[in-house]
């Protein structure tokens, strides 16, 4: 389990119509797919796992990708790698924006399909390219990753969730074909802690939440992580950016106080600024989830 904090927030729900259609088509396409590349956001690897994914993919090969490598520190990468190892998983970290660690992923996808062609050969059939599908929540970087795998921009990638609206096959090489799919998300976001993190990370549409609540929750998360896992966070990250520290504040109180201090009392503007600065990485490399056993205190708040 990742280290989490319970938010006392009202319900965040987001399920645009195109996602329902895409989910249906995706399930159909899965029948002809050999390998699933599950892409998650490295800042929130637990919250960007779709709870039904394992049911859908059955015993097909799966390659786990934690994208946005540039947004977590090497130390956080290390603790997640150890955690996944304990759970018999090997995560592939990528930075789809800059194109880092892409070859290793392409090889892993291809290797996962080697067995497929061995089976075909034993039945006297000709080898064919491995068919892989890229699955993940909206905005985690699926299209950017495919573009990197291809070495050129063919599928639209944009800084807002919900851009890819249909499924399309792309030939990466003679050995590998990829299916890009729109982000999928559970019909109901039962886990509201996860929903808040998705909102903070811009992984769900912004019409579904209140910026001020989400910015307050973001500051609460930082305060909380600073208390239990300060070794995994940049030091004084709020003070460094805004010249205004968060000691003795709750997230909401900090938002209001920062608005007074820097933004003429404009709380909405302050909330947007905090969220934008985090999303652009201007506050430093901040994980919003870490495995509980790596925190200073071995406690899970739930
Ligand atoms: N910093 C950083 N940004 C990334 C990375 N990968 C993708 N992005 C950016 O994240 C945004 C979303 O990327 P997309 O590739 O469109 O995401 P997607 O998962 O296809 O999104 P949907 O089409 O909504 O499902 C774009 O602005 C990308 O440039 C990464 O590794 N690091």
Automatic annotation (TrEMBL):
GO terms for molecular function: GTP binding; GTPase activity. Residues 20-187 form the CP-type G domain. Keywords: Cytoplasm, GTP-binding, Nucleotide-binding. GTP binds at residues 67-70, 183. Its main location: cytoplasm. It is found in: Cytoplasm. GO terms for biological process: translation. One of its GO terms (cellular component) is cytoplasm. Required for a late step of 50S ribosomal subunit assembly. Has GTPase activity. NCBIfam families: GTPase_YlqF (TIGR03596). Belongs to the TRAFAC class YlqF/YawG GTPase family. MTG1 subfamily. This is Ribosome biogenesis GTPase A. It comes from Brunnivagina elsteri CCALA 953.
């Amino acid at each position: 389990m990742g280290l989490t904090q319970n938010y006392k927030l009202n319900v965040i729900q987001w399920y645009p119509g195109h996602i329902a259609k895409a989910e249906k088509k995706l399930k159909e396409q899965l029948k002809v797919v050999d390998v699933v590349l599950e892409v998650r956001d490295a800042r929130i690897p637990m919250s960007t796992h779709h709870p039904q994914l394992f049911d859908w993919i059955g015993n097909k090969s799966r390659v786990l990708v934690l994208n946005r490598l540039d947004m977590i520190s090497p130390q956080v990468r290390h603790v997640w790698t150890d955690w996944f190892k304990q759970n018999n998983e090997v995560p592939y970290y990528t930075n789809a924006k800059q194109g880092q660690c892409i070859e290793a992923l392409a090889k892993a996808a291809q290797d996962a399909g080697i067995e497929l062609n061995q089976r075909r050969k034993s039945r006297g059939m000709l080898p064919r390219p491995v068919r892989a599908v890229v699955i993940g929540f909206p905005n985690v970087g699926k299209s950017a990753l495919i573009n990197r795998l291809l070495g050129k921009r063919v599928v639209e990638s944009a800084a807002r969730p919900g851009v890819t609206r249909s499924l399309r096959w792309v030939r990466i090489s003679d050995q590998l074909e990829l299916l890009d799919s729109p982000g999928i998300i559970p019909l109901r976001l039962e886990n509201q802690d996860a929903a808040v993190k998705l909102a903070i990370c811009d992984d769900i549409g912004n019409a579904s939440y209140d910026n001020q609540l989400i910015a307050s929750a973001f500051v609460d998360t930082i305060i909380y992580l600073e208390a239990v896992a300060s070794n995994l966070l940049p030091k004084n990250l709020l003070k460094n950016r805004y010249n205004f520290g968060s000691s003795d504040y709750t997230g909401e109180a900090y938002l209001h106080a920062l608005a007074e201090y820097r933004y003429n009392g404009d709380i909405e503007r302050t909330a947007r600024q905090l969220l934008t600065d985090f999303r652009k990485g201007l506050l430093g490399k901040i994980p919003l989830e870490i495995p509980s056993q790596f925190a200073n205190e071995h406690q899970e708040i739930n």
